[in-house]
């Protein structure tokens, strides 16, 4: 069987606003990404996923799209996008773009027409509300001038489309064609389980992401992805789609990943697992048992960075665990999604001043929740402030970087064998050599308490989540470890790749 490129791909998420700023306005842009393609190639990833760069009033960092077929001037032009795709391909990197089909911006021409009382059937307008809450906090309904309410599962600036209207289907097929015709290799589908809401919009008790809920995961959504799959199959070059599906079971996740639906879906259970061998093993077993094409992810632009999640009072522990988790993830069958900055070991920035915060979660929760700005702080490329090489000249970035970013910058880490950046490069290079030579299956080996050992043919991965050093399992050579080994002992918070002939 020919193995599709995405099955084992390493995809690097670029949160465009925070990756690299070429224009000098303090906000990352497409030209900034283009300049850093050699860095990404050198890192050893196979593809990049660009978060939304479309025209948007930025009520939710661009996840509120006002025009699905353009580029916001903040991020560049369509010509910049086209040259980015061309140059990425020349570097051997595929390009995924984010598609936001659950909602548009309130500035989208369709919603502006709806506000004028025209064609409200493309959104969800009602005379009375139900008890649904916005995911960001507060009610999911906002009243318009004539007294009707519209539904928004996220910010008021993000009205939900009515997917029961065929016009919405036709529009999105056309949007997908627009980007496919410009050479994109696939799509990341935002809130992929959200498009349909239960008929009659009944009240809910618990609105968290569940496989059975009037708010999320209605069965009709699968027909959308069947249509999209047919469209993708009609293009040459193995175009693909990965869904952002938040749910509470791997069986439910698997419903989206089918030969006639999405190619992949994010596996958030992996990212939600605490630092625990039992939790890790359960997610791995559940995933491999139910999802034909597995994916793994530790961090993204919506969650606390994993170095901080795994951290204890000692920040070094968080980093050691983050590196061990990475090595474990890269040994699993399937594809892995990395988030910009994790290769530098960036922590969550927890002490941003309130006046710097921009995430609607902070505002809609009335400051009770810090929001997601702490994982979106611009990347430090060089040692020197004010922007650590993020913006040219003396420009301040759109979110302030802490002083600790100097030590974590690319400039500081490049060439330092013990650095997290060089560790990522080495791990990705080893994985690239191994991936075609090892089976897509995994076998658990006996291991002491607190520790996991598994093998894939000649490769054995060992991770120590316990408090004591343990003996490595049988092996011929040590290929790589996430931290120093002590002779034949694997210290706590450390993982290793071992080879046996
Ligand atoms: C997804 C995005 C998130 C955004 C939300 C609404 O969860 O990843 O950043 O706020 O959708 O579009």
TrEMBL record:
The keyword Nucleus does not apply. It holds the Pfam family Alpha-amylase. InterPro entries: GH, GH13_cat_dom, O16G_dom_2. The keyword Hydrolase applies. Residues 13-376 form the Glycosyl hydrolase family 13 catalytic domain. Transmembrane segments: none annotated. Keywords: Glycosidase, Hydrolase. Its EC number is 3.2.1.20. GO terms for molecular function: alpha-1,4-glucosidase activity; alpha-amylase activity. It is an enzyme of class 3 (hydrolase). GO terms for biological process: oligosaccharide catabolic process. Belongs to the glycosyl hydrolase 13 family. This is Alpha-glucosidase. It comes from Nonomuraea jabiensis.
